[in-house]
């Protein structure tokens, strides 16, 4: 059966950005704590800004002054003030950013704050562009244009840029097709600096996704979404040398990942509608945010069954997969003081939670 790419794009984008049904099951409070990890459930009151003004808020970062910057499909980036008011950020159209559905659909996806605290790097999963934004001046420049879409991005202390190519896609439709039927076209790349041509670190991955490093920047972690695992590589950020060291954990459809202030690996699990912490020291796993429902888990089980049998899965992406969240859960990020956890998703609002 031949899939019409434009139809697939519009179907998935419409589904994952729909407002999901309300539920009274969730309290939004930390109901219990195990080994100092909170267990937090969803509450509609935790929506932030809460007015549906964001668009495909896949990823974000917190700034030192308490403001939040998130990716925005229409404008590249948006900045959110502490009171929730927000506006386009970075003058992306001046840098050549274009979003004109249905023929040209942009995919702002990964976002990282450079170590200097003054610049942001954003990558587009649709057309493969990497943009760099000066936070103070809001000047944005295009620094690299990859052959395929770039899913996630990380900047190390030397200024080198590491990024994942989830598939050999040149638009959003082709990217979603790689989610429908798994193909080993994912890869990891490194740019030594802003002007360097990328060097391939690894390939033949099944939808390489979130990327980050440990605090010492000696280990690189990468989500391999369609294989339900997070891989690690021993790296030397000075030389760029990287050596595969194994699978650090298995988790359902891992998306964005980060290392928290205590060295724990935090993973977004879209299929399970959860955020999971992996404590390397105690070799334990903890659900720290849970928006799962019975309907969600039934769909997740069917997703895994089809994955193992090589059966298409796109039709399973419905609001029941991510309800009660505004959209499909894709990631999370902390405030600078670690007291606030933001849940990113493909909807129109973040989820803002107290994290203790």
UniProtKB/TrEMBL annotation:
<protein>
    <submittedName>
        <fullName>SMP-30/gluconolaconase/LRE-like region</fullName>
    </submittedName>
</protein>
<dbReference type="Pfam" id="PF08450">
    <property type="entry name" value="SGL"/>
</dbReference>
<dbReference type="InterPro" id="IPR013658">
    <property type="entry name" value="SGL"/>
</dbReference>
<dbReference type="InterPro" id="IPR051262">
    <property type="entry name" value="SMP-30/CGR1_Lactonase"/>
</dbReference>
<keyword id="KW-0378">Hydrolase</keyword>
<dbReference type="InterPro" id="IPR011042">
    <property type="entry name" value="6-blade_b-propeller_TolB-like"/>
</dbReference>
<dbReference type="GO" id="GO:0016787">
    <property type="term" value="F:hydrolase activity"/>
</dbReference>
<feature type="domain" description="SMP-30/Gluconolactonase/LRE-like region">
    <location>
        <begin position="148"/>
        <end position="282"/>
    </location>
</feature>
